[in-house]
Amino acid sequence: MNPERPTPEPAKKKRAPGRPKAQFTHDATIQLRLERGQLEQLTEQARVTGYSRSAIIRAALDGVQVIQAAPTAEQREHYRQLVKLATNLNQLVVQARVGQDVQDRARATLDQVQQLLATLNPSAA
């Protein structure tokens, strides 16, 4: 006789506990003394860019100039509008090449582009 053996159940997949380890760990701490003006400058740069003060200091040590963080939702919307206006301008150029008078529409579109650019970069105005 052939005694029936129960078929073994497949082993359960083990789940790793907790969050995965960070690729780069910051395991050393320093105490840094700054002049009041330097601290204000660092704090302002952190506020403008959206990075932490520590991240800005680490980037400076790596030789990277921290300019600006990712665009805000409002800025992304302005960029989308610029893409649409650029497409419109391209279509107007094509129409102008076939002899249509598009000067007024092109001027109006360029005015909208300039307004959006001034909104995105007020220091350039």
Report on this structure.
This protein has helices at 36-49, 53-61, 73-97, 103-120. With 125 residues, the protein is an all-alpha fold. It folds into two domains: 34-70, no CATH class; 73-124. Helix 3 (73-97) runs antiparallel to helix 4 (103-120). The model has no long low-confidence stretch (mean pLDDT 83).
Number of domains: 2
Number of β-strand runs: 0
- Average pLDDT, rounded to a whole number, is 83
Strand residue content: under 5%
Number of helices: 4
Radius of gyration: 29 Å
- Label the structural class: mainly alpha
Overall form: flat
Order of helices and strands: HHHH
- Indicate the percent of residues in helices: 40-55%
Provide the low-confidence segments as ranges. none
In whole angstroms, the N-to-C terminal distance is 94 Å
Region (Disordered): 1-25
Biased composition (Basic and acidic residues): 1-11
Pfam families: NikA-like
InterPro entries: NikA-like
